[in-house]
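DM between two lab members

TW: hey, do you still have the phosphoglycolate phosphatase entry open?
JB: yeah, one sec
JB: this one, 228 aa:
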Amino acid sequence: MQPEPRTFGTVVFDLDGTLIDSAPALQGIASRFLAELDAAPLTIEETRSFIGNGGWRFCQRALESRGFPSDDDAVDAHYVRFLKIYSAAPASDNVLFPGVPEALSRLREAGIAIGLCTNKPEAPTHVVLEAFGLSFDVVVTGDTLPQNKPAPEPLMAAIEALGGTARHTLYVGDSEIDALTAEAVGCPFALHTAGYHDTFEMAGPPTYRIDDIPALLGIVLARDAASA
Ligand SMILES: O=C(O)COP(=O)(O)O
Ligand SMILES: [Mg+2]
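TW: and the structure you got?
JB:
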């Protein structure tokens, strides 16, 4: 008798708050940016709460929090400098969550295609991936398409590039933005609870909740994972 086919042939990951704890790095980056404007540094709580909608929105929230104008033109004017500081920052203040490289290798060995779909800008994404030796079959960053999550296009593009289908893809993220993205695409969603935003107001409950990345293996590698 043939084994049951796996439920998931493709897994796509969010980056910040899911595979890496980037809050200490972004706190430092934002603080250097704000210091040039003679403004106080961000707290780690502020930093965590500002991550998830991409670099431009992070910059906007940082400016807003320190009482600067934060309309589109004002943010555009500052974003060039912010992105320069962000892109030049070493990866050393980012912390890889436990078991990530091993879990990615296990998925690969099992023939699962793996992708990354993040709102993080392209240059700092690649700095982090190279520093931690993480590689994916497709990488969609905040700069790849005109749309950012929670619009469905970035995740749809990742799934298409992997040759997968929404129904047989698991999207793994840490925020309601990711949950809304998965909903818009029509794929199941696993929430990594160690990330930044585990309270949901608009999205439905996650299909799965995992407290660490290796916990995914039990879901994805099961021959007859509960159909999502
Ligand atoms: O907001 C960001 O820049 C990064 O966010 P993400 O990796 O969680 O999509
Ligand atoms: Mg995230």
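TW: got it. Residues 72-88 form the longest helix (17 residues). Strands lie at 10-13, 20-21, 95-96, 113-117, 138-140, 169-173, 189-192, 208-210.
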